[in-house]
Amino acid sequence: xxxxxxxxxxxxxKDVEDSMDGNICRCTGYRPIFDAMKSLAPDATEELKxxxxxxxxxxxxxxxxxxSAGKEIERAQEVTGFEQEFExxxxxxxxxxxxKSGEQWVKxxxxxxxxMTIQRFQxxxxxxxxxxxxxxxxxxxxxxxxxxxxxxxxxxxxxxVSVNPVSVIIGGATSIGVAIETLKKAAEMxxxxxxxxxxxxxxxxxxxxxxxxxxxxxxxxLKHAHPEFPSDIFLLLxxxxxxxxxxxxxxxxxxxxxxxxxxxxxxxxxxxxxxFPKLKGYHFRSFKITRRYQxxxxxxxxxxxxxxxxxxxFSILSKPSIVFxxxxxxxxxxxxxxxxxxxxxxxxxxxxxxxxxxxxxxQPDHRxxxxxxxxxxxxxxxxLYKCIVGIRGETASPRIQSGGPDLERGxxxxxxxxxxxxxxxxxxxxxxKLEAPMQCTGEAEYTNDIHPQLGELSAAFVITKVxxxxxxxxxxxxxxxxxxxxxxxxxxxIPGENNFMVTADQAGPDVIFVKDKITYAGxxxxxxxxxxxSIALKAAKLVKVTYTNIQKPVLDIPTSxxxxxKEGRLDDCIIKVKPASQTKLGAAFRKLKxxxxxxxxxxxxxxxxxxxDSIRVVRSPRKHFDDAPHNLQGxxxxxxxxxxxxxxxxxxxxxxxxxxxxxxxSQWIQQLQSAVASCLGIPNNFVNVQVKRLxxxxxxxxxxxxxxxxxxxxxxxxxxxxxxxxxxxxxxxxTLGKRLPYMFSYDVGFDDSDGWQLIPxxxxxxxxxxxxxxxxxxPQAIGCIENIMEHIASTLKKDPMEVRMANFIxxxxxxxxxxxxVLEEDNCIPALLTEMKTNADLDxxxxxxxxxxxxxxxxKRGLALTPMRCAIHYFFSGYNLFLSVYGKDGSVSLAHSGVxxxxxxxxxxxxxxxxxxxxxxxxxxxxxTNVLTGANTALTGAAITSEHICYAALKACDILSKRIxxxxxxxxxxxxxxxxxxxxxxxxxxxxxxxxxxxxxxxxYAVWGLTACxxxxxxxxxxxxxxxxxxxxxxxxxxxxxxxxxxxEGAFIFGIGMWLTEKIQYDQETGELLTNCTWEYKPPASxxxxxxxxxxxxxxxxxxxxxxRSKATGEAPLCMSVSALFAIKNAIMAARLDAGNMEWFNLxxxxxxxxxxxxxxxxxxxxxxxxxxxxxxxxxxxxxxxxRSKNRRxxxxx
Length: 1198
Known about the structure:
The protein is α+β, with helices and mostly antiparallel strands. Among the domains are: 2-89, DNA polymerase, domain 1; 96-280, Uridine Diphospho-n-acetylenolpyruvylglucosamine Reductase, domain 3 (2-Layer Sandwich); 826-869 and 1008-1163, Aldehyde oxidase/xanthine dehydrogenase, molybdopterin binding domain (Aldehyde Oxidoreductase, domain 4); 880-991, Aldehyde oxidase/xanthine dehydrogenase, molybdopterin binding domain (Aldehyde Oxidoreductase, domain 4, 2-Layer Sandwich). It contains 37 helices and 42 strands. A hairpin with a 5-residue loop joins strand 32 (814-815) and strand 33 (821-822). Helix 14 (335-341) runs antiparallel to helix 15, helix 24 (669-680) crosses helix 25 and helix 27 packs across helix 28. The two termini are 54 Å apart.
């Protein structure tokens, strides 16, 4: 942010949002980050400035100290021009380094030095790479290896830019960021007006930090080396006919076209500069269609340059330039289409013929995990159509004009509302999270920030590359020859048990290292231990692993079910009834498990009991179906999701005289202790585990963290030296499990009576064992049930909310199957709906959406309402807290067995202690979690740990208060400091401890909520944006409202990733994870959040069953994010209505732009003529006749 403020003197709020495109921190919801940073912009709203008015008052922040080093440097720059002197000094100093790893690094300061260095390396046979930002390694990590690197950042002539009426020239080594600003300036001249469109397109290349480091020439060289690379730089330069100057010597330069450059041997050559042509009178348009709005490569990108005369019926005066990326590595120009369009007029007949011509020459390749070839083909055709509609502008039909513009996102806005009882502060007070100041300044210490130990080594996993095979041999000999490699550790080095899932209530066992059977690609066979992490990672790739009996892997549920009988891939579940689906998959299930199941003897469940608050037990489901006047069947799929925590799996294992000290990023210290003790064959009390904080967990560090920690402990045990292990992202994603995917098959009979059946089954696949992920099971179950509600409403032609309300649970209905409980409170959803209609203007917005959809063929809006009742169960107990008060000053320390991972557990427990002891919050400090004070603890998760710890704090404070009460009675209105000092003198124990147990009778409860989500969809491309989200969440009486707001927003955006952007894909032949890095896997970024995001914590919602009348907020709001899926579905339905199709269709999660475009029925597919007929609508408006829903029968569907 400081750099942005320094570089932009007229900073705007939009500049701030644009600059955040490189941040991936969905757990924050992004909104609070935007608010804080935008408040520094002069055009920030007064509301925002008031909200963040104290942003510069952060205690201890060096920026507030006028004598700080930062201010001294700032003044030095102002007074002496230090920055300029430093740059000049750099330019005059060539540099040649011989690195310890064997590579050479040369910094060239001029062209002479550059070419002399290149010639020397060529003569020596060294493979070299010219670098500036070297950002290409983020895309192509396996290029090389290189023996030498030549840094060209200090060669001024390569970054020179020239903008004048005669020419626009940009140096080859100019950063993309500088090039964008240069083109904006050039666009002020009429001949170069097209440059503003190029600069806008290039702002979607990578992200701001990358654009500030990456160069134009570097990007072009990536395209030169990798023709499949979807370079936006190359695409637009080729579209406009830019020229490259390539230098082969300091004074030898030659001009090339962009395509000639691709065919030129660049060994010994350097891109010197780029020349932009004058293009007055041309229409230029470009597109980039991506999975995520920003920081994503294109499915297909396209550039169009046409010389069109509007006065001559939009005649194309010369051969246009039509360039596509993302089709296949060799496709650049749509030459046949270009030739066809030359001299034509842009009328309906021309468009039809041009699209058919384009259809013939587009031959997309198949390259998973990229989008399907048919989608990329139809997308390219749609982009040509969008370009032409844009050229025609207002001369096109009003309904068709919406096909021309891109979906433009506005500036984000957020609003938060909650109640807070000031009489109870610091409890219920909206305070800053305790760790926030240290986190904002980068001073908060995480596991990998711990200073290296004396003699410390690093370890890296060696993993399998296939699934469903037998391990043959593991040969580490080449890796062991590498300088700096210490040893290789595998199954032979395990003195204890080869199992890291040792806790009784886990679904184990699970091996640390493969011994024979390989069950998934990415399964570790061992670790390489080396003197540094970089050496360990390189050496791990040199270990040779061979396999036998390689079988094609089973990677998804449908395939697993089809192979269930033969391979035993289906496990029994608790509830056993006849599967509903009459599909081929259902038939396979029935054949394996039998036609009917009796549930009479299982947990004493009976008719009417509710399972997971959504599904009622039906003893004779077939009878209900046969008696029902309506029956429908369907399937609903929910994909997996990677946790994508900011901090990877990391640990440090230190051998000690008495055993092993472990610092680890873990949500369950007791499990780590037990797993390490088991694999080393030592007692648990020999293993010490400590956790200060996590950089995110979301369930990824509950059970699966022990896999890496046990491997690291084995390495430390073998070498008798400290070992650190930090998983890189690719290994982290390949090795560790993710959110469980689900496939729901449903058969629903509905009438005036209730009746549900549950489809059982757990399918085993050849993928990493899945694990807990934020709100495990709940969003999938709620998504399925809400999908069924939508399906029933579609069948009956009813409002989906009407169907939902008819099926709401009511006071007195049974809950929590088998426990004989009933709902003791009123269902508050109707009241929330009334509030939502008023505060969110639902009725007016519904009307606007209907009008918008009627007036626009190619843009559609959808608005969906999703209610929620999410059960919070106290599954676990055994959470403890140890409290100490220090007599000298009355300060308080506490250690609890929960783990702070961003959810604010430390803040909440400190507020409770401060309130109970009647002391300022500033007197309370929370110490790291460890197995001494937190022995035998349960895991941190399931949204209940904060409440358990706060309950333990209440009890511990009560114990302490009773102990000091006699001393307090002897004093007259003593201060806290005096009171504890007197207690010390009297020998009073000022420590207390409490451990929660099941006898504490903490009561289960439900979290209620309601969300309205409005979206807009581009039917031609499948792109979408979230326009507005109004969310009401039941937080009881929130313990720390600002923390809870953050949890609600973060959970919702986490769910947006689950339902919309995050798709897990595997190689169908090997089983390897294809979406294993940020290039392919796309969590929501900052511009994927709603433009307008309004969150309300339900008022007057005190929870009689909750700790201090509060409710959990970390997981339940995620369940309401499915509203975005249904809003998109409603928009798609509007598009399908225009296409004459009103049938029900499946929309599974995560939904992709590919899915949306296909389901909107605007894709040519195999029916090109039908698509062309739709395109002809541009010539004349089409009248759409609406319809009114009617009840198909009396009564309400249930």
